[in-house]
Design goal:
Strand order of the largest sheet: 3-2-1-4-5-7-6
Number of helices: 6
Oligomer: single chain
Largest sheet: 7 strands, mixed
Distance between the termini: 15 Å
Shape: globular
Number of strands: 7
Strand content: 15-25%
Length: about 200
C-alpha cells in the first residue's frame, strides 16, 4: 500500500498534542512511530507489553484511528487488566474503540494474527527472541519496534538484528532512542528469496 503523507502528518500532530497534555514524560520517538504506522497505512498493529498501557499503546492507537485499523494489545498476565481498561476509558476515551486487549501467553496469542503491519515488542519480555519464529508479518512490508532493550545486561540483541544478520537485503534497522530500535522490512515481492525466513509470511 502506498505511503500516505497526510495520514502520517495527522498522526504525528495528534500524538504531539497528547504528549503536550500528558504530565508524565513521553519518549520523543512516539511522534515518529505514530507517523510511521499511519503513513504506512497499517491496519493490523500489535503491541506485546509487560507494562500495561504504555506510551506505545497510545501511539499505535492514534495511528489506528487515522488508518481505520486495529491495535491488539497483548498482556502476559491477567492482573490489573480491568485497571488498564478503566485507565484508557478515563484518559483516552476517543481511542478505546480501536484497541483490543488480550491476556495470556504472548507466544501463543501472537500466532492468532496474520499479516501484521506494525508490531511493538517490550524488551522486558522473557525469551522474546522466540517471536522471530512465531510472528506472522505482512509480506507487503512491515515494521518492528523494540523498546527497553537496555533493561538488563543480557538484552543486547534485537529481533531486527537477528533478521538483518540472517537476511540483510530489504531489512533496515536503526536506533531511534535509548534502548529503542526501529526495523523496517521491505516487501517480499521485491526480495522473493526472503519470502519465508522463520518469520511466517503467508500470501
Amino acid at each position: 500500500m502506498a505511503w500516505s503523507p497526510q495520514a502520517a502528518m495527522k498522526a504525528y500532530l495528534h500524538t504531539l498534542q497528547l504528549s503536550d497534555q500528558n504530565e508524565e514524560e513521553t519518549p520523543k520517538s512516539m511522534e515518529f512511530i505514530a507517523a510511521s504506522a499511519a503513513g504506512k497505512q497499517a491496519k493490523l498493529m500489535v503491541e506485546i507489553t509487560t507494562q500495561g498501557i504504555t506510551p506505545y499503546t497510545i501511539t499505535l492507537a492514534v495511528a489506528a484511528k487515522h488508518t481505520g485499523g486495529t491495535l491488539i494489545c497483548i498482556l502476559p498476565h491477567q492482573h490489573h487488566f480491568n485497571k488498564f481498561k478503566t485507565q484508557l476509558k478515563d484518559h483516552h476515551q476517543h481511542l478505546k474503540d480501536v484497541i483490543q486487549f488480550v491476556c495470556g501467553n504472548p507466544y501463543q496469542l501472537v500466532m492468532d494474527y496474520k499479516k501484521i503491519d506494525f508490531i511493538v515488542v517490550d524488551g522486558k519480555l522473557k525469551d522474546r527472541l522466540k517471536l522471530v519464529k512465531m510472528v506472522n508479518l505482512n509480506p507487503s512490508g512491515c515494521i518492528i519496534v523494540e523498546h527497553s532493550l537496555n533493561y538488563r545486561k543480557n538484552v543486547s540483541i534485537s529481533l531486527g538484528q537477528i533478521l538483518k544478520a540472517k537476511h540483510g537485503v530489504g531489512i533496515v534497522s536503526l536506533a531511534i532512542g535509548e534502548g529503542i530500535e526501529f526495523t523496517k522490512i521491505e516487501s517480499s515481492h521485491r526480495y522473493k528469496r526472503y519470502t519465508r525466513f522463520h518469520v511466517t509470511f503467508e500470501n
